Amino acid sequence: MYVMKTFLLSALICATQLFAFAQKDTLSITLENVDYAYPVQYFALKVENQDVRMAYMDVKPKVEANGKAVVLLHGKNFGGYYWGNVIEALTEKGYRVIVLDQIGFGKSSKPIIHYSFHEMAKQTKMLLDSLSVDKVNVLGHSMGGMLATRFALMFPERTSSLILEDAIGLEDYRTFVPYQSAAENYQSELKKSAESIKSYYQNSYFPEWRADYDYLVDIAAGVIPSADYPRWAMVSALTSVMIYEQPVVYEFENLKVPTTVMVGTKDHTIVGKALLNKAEQAKHGLYKELGKATASKIPHAKLVEFDGVGHIPHLQVFPQFMEEFLKALR
């Protein structure tokens, strides 16, 4: 019954998202013209002497509260807009759900600064402090997995559990991907198009493309015609350097919180994949192996594998994902 209900819920939310982004208008780089599933609020911060705003959703339980809070941390190419189905399912189970757009992403400000997982973790804690939220269960997807790991390492007393959903950074990209400076990454970002983004998403994120994934491309490509796109592109370049230069792979053994490692066995994500030849690409980004290796490094970690699934289980196999996610929270 739960699987059928969540499947129908996922389909409904995806249909809503498709409707919301059916008009492929130019988007602002802070996504003002993108509707999120729940009301968005803003948290004021000062970063490197710049006044910035962090966008977030704080969604209360739809049923009697169970007293637990969940934080959802997005991947590099996404924002809070792709968590709608997960938020709905969690709030129906009594969880309070907090979804952040990190500074530089989604509806948040796009300052030109030194981007750091340590700083992002600290800012996440500052937001939680402002909301009087003490302990949280933290789910990080893709780049959010690197950030969630850093948060749990810095603030273990605030972390009830850590769930990594196809986290990047399960290997050290510096050891096999050629270095690219922010300036070089910036030039690559400026060359992106709707076609190249869709091709990347099709080849990197999902074994089979479905129409309900199109809204992801509409948002990522919708900012390209904006006059402010160069700023978006530079922020993306700077955060690519952050991922490359700030690995967490050597610190998994230091985690002291209950951890679940979730991976799609068809995930072959490599940050900087285009810089590798075919032979090198075939040797890395193998999540079927990386999931096991990562779980073995983390004390008492649990491994969950989604057979035949790519980089985003919470979209591709939502019912199965939620089943395992709720187990991890218990």
How would you describe what is shown here?
With 330 residues, this protein is an alpha/beta fold. The protein has a single domain (2-171, 178-329), classed as Alpha/Beta hydrolase fold, catalytic domain (Rossmann fold), CATH 3.40.50. It is built from twelve helices and eight strands. The protein has helices spanning 2-20, 84-91, 117-130, 143-154, 182-190, 194-204, 214-222, 229-245, 278-283, 287-297, 313-316, 318-329, and strands at residues 41-47, 50-59, 69-73, 96-101, 136-141, 159-165, 259-264, 302-306. It has an eight-stranded mixed sheet with strand order 1-2-4-3-5-6-7-8, with helices on both faces. Strand 5 (136-141), helix 4 (143-154) and strand 6 (159-165) form a beta-alpha-beta unit. Helix 5 (182-190) packs across helix 8. The two termini are 19 Å apart. Mean pLDDT is 93; it is low at 1-23. InterPro entries: AB_hydrolase_1, AB_hydrolase_fold, AB_hydrolase_sf, Epox_hydrolase-like. This is Alpha/beta hydrolase.
Q: What is the number of independent domains?
A: 1
Provide the CATH architecture: 3-Layer(aba) Sandwich
Strand content: 15-25%
Biggest sheet: strand arrangement: 1-2-4-3-5-6-7-8
Provide the succession of SSEs.
HEEEHEHEHEHHHHEHHEHH
* Total of helices: 12
Overall average pLDDT: 93
Let me know the CATH homologous superfamily. Answer: Alpha/Beta hydrolase fold, catalytic domain
For this structure, the CATH topology is: Rossmann fold
Largest sheet: 8 strands, mixed
CATH secondary-structure class:
Alpha Beta
Quaternary state of this entry equals single chain
